[in-house]
Amino acid sequence: MPLIALVGRPNVGKSSLFNRLTRSRAALVDDTPGLTRDRQYGAATVGGQSFRVVDTGGFEVVHVESVAAAMREQTLVAIEEADAIIFVTDAQAGPLADDWAVAELLRRSGKPLVCAINKAEGKGGQETALEFHQLGLHPILTISATHAIGLERLIGLIFDQLGRSEPTLSGLDVEEVEEGGADDEEIRVAVVGCPNAGKSTLINRMLGEERLVVSDMPGTTRDAIDLPVLDGEGRRFVLVDTAGIRKKSRISLRIEKYSVLAAIRAMDRAQVAVLLLDAERGITDQDRRIANLAAEAGCGLVLAVNKWDRVASVPEGRRGAGSGGRSGGDRKKFLEAVALAFPQFTHAPVLFLSAKTGAGLPSLLPTVFRVWSSNRLRISTGALNRWLTDVTAQHPPPRLGGRIVKIRYATQVSVNPPTFILFTNREVEIHETYRRYLENQLRAQFNFVGASIRIVFRASSGENPYAPAAGKAKKSRGGCSCSVC
């Protein structure tokens, strides 16, 4: 499929156009310039023609090391790999100095090009659009990404430039729709954590390229970016880079709130969450909150301790347990700190790695696959009820109001996450400690590694339908199994 790059200076509406073409809300949209930083890819099918589109950060002429310079490099990569380019400009602002610089860059690229003058829905926008002919680009047309005006012609011109037939876009002028589910053969992995934990560096290392903008400045990543990758067994993973999640009280910018919501939404769409812990900073309260968010989303969980190379290099005389789980390179002490900080996630595998050097990374995807498999594990009803009989015999449910509580039978109703319904003899509120006992026993018996198990209790007046027929007959007929009495 041809790849079409959306290029332009900051705040001209590239992300709005990307969302409209892909019929998604994948790219964050706001009036703040420089909101998009990493390349965001999407697929579109229009009039039977399929193509890919890549959203880029705002292109600015900068010559110093900064986030803006890294964004510029990301745009240059997108231009290089694209088959055609849509140069997006702003009719409300008119041609600015950066527009001239971008126009010259695109002209030298030699790629098929269409200049789209966005935000031209009003009379003033149409009049200002005439000024863009000074850029010397052709063809030029006015559009409105927000109102889906002129998009049919825009895509038609692109396909003309590519030497293909012009598609019909009858379905383009409709409201955006929710994204569809991921391919069943893809394993979606949300890489989450606090700001500056090294999430983008980790993904860049796994991809083998500087795919994401990396900076020491917290909050560099804003969009949730999907990045496909294959492991050594040929299995397909989609790594989702997310913004660092801070405490609500520390989130001041509207943009950051959007980014945090996108990160939480990424966990809702993922099957496994890799929580990146900063070995230098230690385990924080926010790390615990993020782990709970992953569990609420039903994700399997992997705890990855990043920057372990820095901690392991601390001289012997300066090592110590430290605060928040920092262990000075002692894995055993750090594991003890993890168990203390995450008592409800002792089932989650813990990896020690370095995104900067690549140490420990070969074991990450195989571990994610194990957790993904556990999250999809389905237990037969017979095996589940045999397990239930054993564990309740060893440790019966506590009495409530002086009355005995019985769990009659169990059944698994879904996976991702594995969800079980346990039917009791009456309407009761089972204590959380007993629920945790059952969950731990379930994990131990069926080897649920890192999976987020859900147990629901429901009252049932009937007997266990999975009990042996002879046992039910003996109970109901005083031991006689004949058909007469």
Explain what the structure shows.
- The structure is a single chain.
- With 485 residues, this protein is α/β, with parallel strands linked by helices.
- It contains 14 helices and 15 strands.
- It is elongated and about 85 Å long.
- The N and C termini lie far apart (74 Å).
- The model is unreliable at 28-34, 165-184, 212-222, 249-256, 316-328 and 469-485 (pLDDT under 50).
In short:
The chain is an alpha/beta fold. It is 32% helix and 19% strand.
Summarize the SSE layout with pairings.
Layout: E1 3-7, H1 14-22, E2 40-46, E3 49-55, H2 67-81, E4 84-90, H3 97-109, E5 113-118, H4 123-129, E6 140-142, H5 151-161, E7 186-193, H6 199-207, E8 225-230, E9 236-241, H7 254-269, E10 272-278, H8 285-296, E11 300-306, H9 308-312, H10 331-341, E12 350-352, H11 364-375, H12 381-394, E13 407-414, E14 419-424, H13 432-446, E15 454-459, H14 469-476
Parallel strand pairs: 1-3, 1-4, 4-5, 5-6, 7-9, 7-10, 10-11, 11-12, 14-15
Antiparallel strand pairs: 2-3, 8-9, 13-14
